[in-house]
Specification:
about 575 residues; alpha+beta; Immunoglobulin-like; Rossmann fold; 4 domains; 8-stranded mixed β-sheet; 5-stranded mixed β-sheet; 15 helices; Aerotolerance regulator N-terminal domain-containing protein; membrane; transmembrane
Length: about 575
């Protein structure tokens, strides 16, 4: 740039300057013999002007101009043509841009002082493109259809697949049907009216593997309106070994051991009959009585469920063995509550409680009431809720080294089974055990960061590993660059761009076992859901944006007519100059 000037063909600047100097020097050499005529100096100046004009014609100079009112209108998917026409009538001179996540519009945005966005909005990974530009987002109405969806994509075999969501403006008397990968109906519901409706559908997968279930919408006659995929990965459930210790048999333990046995847990139950005499029961495991709680004997269990009287009556050395097993080996300890637990101090019981006087609790998103002790947990930094968003504050755990100690204020949970609400009972105990039992160590722990991967768009993921060297391949072919976290060296993040829809895999090079499956959606899958999420994300992104126009400098081309005139005048003078000398 020279004093505010730029050249459109700046990549030609050096060769053009060198060529021009060569031409000018050749002219001087040629005209040197005519210096006695008295016009050599004048002709040299004219020649210089001619060469300069030729340079400008080739390089196309531009002048930076200050712009303060050049608005752009960015059209995104789902925009309404009438809204575009209306904005063009109100804001004269709008520059119309069409958004395509696979094409760059940065060059066009750089010359705009502000931007209006209409339609469903930009993809989140493109928000940075408007970071420096005052942006106003005019959102679409939330489309009819499924606008919120929740399901667990990775399940253990035998766990319930629960699909929750919200349907906005359904067709009256239409159906939602949860189907397996073969199209068989597993659960369904009917919309009785056209209002916004929360829905929940449930199924129990029977086989492990990667599957694509379907959520189908059908009209009142059973004709399919729309179908969207629900990809799930069913994993073989790892065996969990549980030891239950009771001073005497209780109804709580009776129903709990039966539930755990039905869920394929390996359960050993020890109930005290008299001093020094015990009754043992074994479910899904071989007989192996345990009398002494040494560090070695506790290693064979993943979790211990013990009533408060039994545990807090243990001697100091036994409790020390339990705590060392928790800290060093990751043992999970669940203390079945009683009045004794709430009378102990926090140093002894691991927890602190306050009396709240409430003997019942209604589980969220249900009308199911459960009994509880009239206490609540004292929240503290070291306490962690066990799925508090679903179970209130009934259960907490405390981290001790590698393991966890947990308890609950829930009383007589087996009464849920007597009331016929087995699902609520199963959810409570499954959540508790899943939260406190240490997961088996894996070479690589994967986590997807993109909700709806699509072909050609970025799929972000994270992984954690203790491997010293690791190389990841996408579908066993393309190596994916990994970015190591400087603060947490065993944590990596990466981005890949899938090339095919359906199931894709991430593999650790040289290890065929350690892999991660992720599903790439078709462009038309979950249109209403993706549109509603995109609208919400764009509203949040641009709601606090400064609406004052920015000042931008735009390069405007300088008309080449001036340079053509200078060139013609200069050439004319050089043609005429020898004739004038002859006449003289």
């Amino acid at each position: 740039m020279i004093n505010g000037f730029l050249f459109a063909q700046k990549e030609l600047l050096i060769p053009v300057i060198l060529g021009s100097l060569l031409v000018f020097v050749a002219f001087l050499v040629k005209e040197w013999n005519t210096r006695s005529s008295g016009r050599f100096a004048l002709n040299s100046v004219v020649a210089f002007v001619i060469v300069l004009a030729l340079m400008c014609i080739v390089l196309e100079p531009t002048k930076q101009v200050e712009m303060q009112h050049q608005q752009g209108l960015l059209l995104t998917s789902g925009f309404v043509k009438d809204e575009q026409d209306s904005l063009e009538r109100v804001y004269k001179g709008l520059e119309i841009l069409e958004y395509n996540p696979k094409k760059s519009i940065r060059a066009s945005l750089d010359s705009l002082t502000s931007v209006l966005v209409i339609g469903n909005g930009l993809e989140e990974f493109d928000f940075y493109k408007l970071k420096s530009i005052p942006t106003t987002y005019l959102p679409n109405e939330v489309p009819s259809g499924i606008t919120r969806l929740k399901f667990t994509q990775r399940l253990n075999l035998g766990e319930d697949l629960i699909v929750d969501g919200i349907y906005d403006q359904p067709k009256k008397n239409s159906f939602l049907v949860l189907q397996d990968s073969r199209g068989n109906g597993l659960d369904s519901l009917q919309f009785r009216d056209a209002s916004i409706l929360d829905f929940s559908l449930t199924a129990v997968p029977k086989v492990s593997g990667d599957f694509v279930y379907q959520l189908a919408e059908k009209d009142s006659l059973g004709n399919r309106i729309e179908t969207n995929p629900i990809p799930i990965t069913i994993q073989e459930k790892e065996p969990v070994r549980i030891l239950i210790l009771n001073t005497f048999p209780t109804f709580e333990t009776k129903y709990l051991k039966n539930f755990l046995a039905d869920e394929s847990y390996e359960v050993t139950v020890r109930s005290q009959l008299t001093k020094g005499k015990y009754k043992f029961e074994y479910f899904n495991t071989k007989a192996s009585p345990i009398y002494q709680f040494s560090l070695e004997s506790l290693k064979q269990y993943d979790a211990v469920i013990v009533d408060a009287e039994t545990y807090f009556n243990f001697g100091k050395s036994v409790k020390s063995n339990f705590e060392n097993s928790i800290r060093e080996n990751g043992l999970a300890l669940f203390i079945q509550p009683s009045e004794k637990l709430f009378s102990l101090g926090a140093k002894t019981s691991y927890f602190s409680f306050k009396r709240d006087g409430r003997n019942e609790f209604q589980l969220p998103i249900s009308n199911i009431t459960v009994e509880k002790y009239p206490f609540r947990f004292n929240d503290a930094f070291a306490l962690n809720p066990i799925n508090a968003h679903e179970l209130g504050n009934l259960s907490y755990y405390k981290q001790l080294g590698l393991g966890r100690v947990a308890t609950t204020t829930l009383l007589n949970s087996y009464q849920l089974l007597l009331k016929g609400v087995e699902q609520a009972y199963a959810k409570i105990w499954t959540h508790i055990l899943d939260k406190i039992v240490k997961r088996k160590e894996q070479a690589v722990d994967w986590e997807s960061q993109t909700a709806f991967p699509k072909v050609g768009e970025p799929f972000n993921f994270e992984l954690r590993t203790n491997l010293e060297e690791i190389s990841v391949l996408n579908n066993g072919v393309n190596r994916v660059p990994l970015l190591q976290n400087s603060a947490v060296p065993f944590k990596f993040s990466a981005t890949t761009y899938p090339k095919k829809k359906g199931w894709n895999t991430l593999d650790v090079e040289g290890d065929s076992i350690t892999s991660f499956s992720y599903y790439v959606y078709d462009t038309n899958d979950w249109e209403s859901l993706r549109a509603s999420k995109k609208i919400a994300a764009n509203k949040a992104q641009f709601s606090n944006d400064s609406k004052e126009n920015r000042t931008v400098m735009v390069n405007r081309p300088i008309s080449p007519m001036l340079f053509y005139i200078l060139f013609l005048l200069g050439v004319g003078w050089l043609w005429l100059s020898p004739k004038l000398s002859t006449e003289n």
